[in-house]
Write a structure and sequence with these properties.
- Two copies of one chain form a homodimer.
- Chain A is built from twelve helices and 15 strands.
- Chain A has helices at about 5-15, 50-55, 70-80, 85-95, 95-105, 115-125, 150-165, 220-235, 270, 275-285, 315-325, 355-370; strands spanning about 25, 40, 110-115, 130-135, 145-150, 170, 175-185, 190-195, 200-205, 205-210, 240-250, 250-260, 300-305, 330-335, 345-350.
- In chain A, strand 7 and strand 8 (about 190-195) form a beta hairpin.
- Chains A, B: InterPro entries: ATP-grasp, ATP-grasp_carboxylate-amine, ATP_grasp_subdomain_1, PreATP-grasp_dom_sf, PurK, PurK_C, PurT/PurK_preATP-grasp, Rudment_hybrid_motif.
- Chains A, B: It holds the Pfam family ATP-grasp.
């Protein structure tokens, strides 16, 4: 796996059960997956030589992120290295414009490429203000996205970004009720499978909570969304798992982004589904038959643990002690990362039957692990 | 963790979630845990220098097996190394005679030490033939146990073993209905917790199946057994997890053996319980509060995959493919070991509601992974 972040770390855990040991290409030995896998190669994901040497040392090459240059991957494939997902599939997660062009008939918001300030202004005047300017490649967690409120904002922002060489597109701002996501897997053989559709809750462009299944989602609509994900997987020739991020609107869902790898919106599957996204990704890239994706409790909530704005008084180990004392059934995943404000350093998953209760407990747990403060004023000394 | 077998391998998987990376003391780099942990030290568990160096490099020393000499552990403790379980607890898994002396009032079969042939003959004449001769230390998976059918057998066998320097004891052969086991955890703080009581099915002294919960066990009796396990844990000062193996007889249960570590009879907890024995062991030795031990399905069956008597025609990878094609919900754990006849090379866990069905599927899956043959004649080509 190219990249040694938390996705590679959790993929290694799944690999162990299958009798494998994940090899990772890391930038440094203190990255989350490098800390737990004995098979770490050091090198950059943008360095063709490093990719080639790593690719030759493994059975199949796969990815923790979308940032490996497509031309490098095409070179490796031409040299006989097995790459899953293939560069032709991965490009749909790398290039937001290309993805929209390829999936236009499946439901994406109106969009156009922006090669000049005029392109953006004309689009805004036609489709309404504000509209959403996006970097065609490279953005994540809210980066690479700018809201254009009016033609004046468009002129300033677009001019600056084009000047800096950023490839741009603009998209209609969708009037949405909420964000949904669905994970899908597809093997080289062509077998596909999805998990239940989830709701993702974002704050400042960063996912903070995932609710599985998406509350109140009509079953027919959920089926249609799973079918959509399978069709996208088939059309782009996906191998591995992919997140399809969607906007839920009054007129149905529209596609927001694709991520052709394990994804934050699928972390709940580790304890919440019969087969986790990490095991399924391995099964797909190794061309094993896929595993069952049944949800294991009526409600599963995953809450991200984000680095606190200010360093908590209590150390991470002590916070974990108190968390376990309060919540005996919390599933904690600590990524082994240094704490920095807003950084995803872990997550907590809770299972249960009542959405409000499970969501409250997951949120309290994640807030506590982040800050060492109970959001509901609970006193750890029992006073 | 001293030892790098499958128990250390699965403990490493649990450690990753807690933000840890398990350090293992291995005899060689191809042992199951050494294959998946980046923190492997090479050295023998009987070498005091290797143990000392390893112990000084970690926060807490714990064990994959019972074979570290007690005097070495006492030395390490005297030198300030934290050891969990402490040598005073571990000795109850190392010394079968001492264990029975300490737990006599809690229910063990009649027993006595054997220092001469006469000791065994006298015991057999008093308590009935056949009786069971055991090596006081070092046995596992049926090794170190001999059935003495009559005084003549006792004379031959005991004389030979005493001659070879084997410390011996003899025990009444219990007329049992089945074997039961219960896993218990205890932290240095003194918090204790157990999982449901299970039935273990042995063939030729090797555990082949674990049924959770033990079918048809009276709830009051199950409570009493869990209480017994907690009392034993408390009495011996356990830190970590422990398996209490029991004989179920018409007159109640009697204690068979203790294992003061994660144990084969607890593998079902990985997917079958809210907290697995491996995470719980880590929580206990790190003195975290213990996790919930609720069982997650009405029936959980774990079946061991044993190396086949003859090498299967189909390779392990191809066998895994076909297994996943037939059983989408099988949880497979492959230990990364070379296949040898009778060797535990992995296990399969299945969850469900109907005992006969779940047991049949787990057994078929394990038999297939072992031999590449379906015990029910299923045709992988669909013919």
């Amino acid at each position: 796996m190219v990249g040694a972040g938390q996705l590679a770390r959790m993929t290694h855990q799944a690999a162990v059960a299958l009798g494998q040991s994940l090899h990772v290409l890391a930038n440094s030995l203190d990255e989350p997956a490098a800390l737990v896998s004995p098979n770490t190669s050091l090198g950059s994901h943008t360095d063709l030589e490093a990719l080639r040497a790593f690719g030759k040392s493994v059975d199949v090459l796969t990815f923790d992120h979308e940032h490996v240059p497509g031309e490098h991957l095409r070179t490796l494939v031409a040299e006989g290295i097995r790459v899953h997902p293939a560069p032709e599939a991965l490009v749909h997660a790398q290039n937001k414009l290309l993805m929209r062009e390829r999936l236009a008939d499946l439901g994406v918001p109106p969009f156009t490429e922006v090669l000049s300030v005029d392109d953006a202004v004309k689009f805004g005047n036609e489709h309404g203000w504000p509209c959403v300017l996006k970097s065609i490649s490279g953005g994540y967690d809210g980066r690479g996205v700018w809201m254009l409120d009016d033609p004046a904002a468009a002129e300033t922002t677009v001019a600056e970004l084009l000047e800096a060489g950023t490839p741009l597109m603009v998209e209609q701002k969708v009037s949405m009720r909420r964000e949904l996501a669905v994970m899908v897997a597809r093997s080289p053989f062509g077998q596909g499978g999805t998990w239940p559709v989830v709701e993702t809750v974002q704050v400042n462009g960063i996912c903070v909570e995932v609710l599985a299944p998406a509350p109140g989602l009509d079953p027919d609509r959920a089926d249609a969304i799973q079918d959509l994900a399978l069709r996208i997987a088939d059309r782009i020739g996906l191998t591995g798992v992919m997140a399809v991020e969607l906007f839920d609107t009054d007129d149905g869902v529209v596609i927001n982004e694709l991520a052709t790898r394990p994804h934050n919106s699928g972390h709940w599957t580790i304890e919440g589904a019969r087969t986790s996204q990490f095991e399924q990704h391995l099964r797909a890239v190794l061309d094993y038959p896929l595993g069952a994706t049944d949800q294991l409790a009526p409600v599963v909530v995953m809450a991200n643990v984000l680095g606190a704005p200010a360093s908590p008084a209590m150390g991470p180990d002590e916070r974990l002690h108190h968390l376990f004392a309060r919540f005996r059934d919390a599933h904690v995943h600590n990524y082994g990362k240094q704490e920095r404000p807003g950084r995803k350093i872990g997550h907590v998953t809770m299972l249960g039957t009542d959405l409000d209760d499970v969501r409250r407990r997951a949120s309290l747990a994640a807030h506590w692990l982040s800050r060492g403060e109970w959001a509901d004023g609970y006193d750890i000394h029992g006073g």
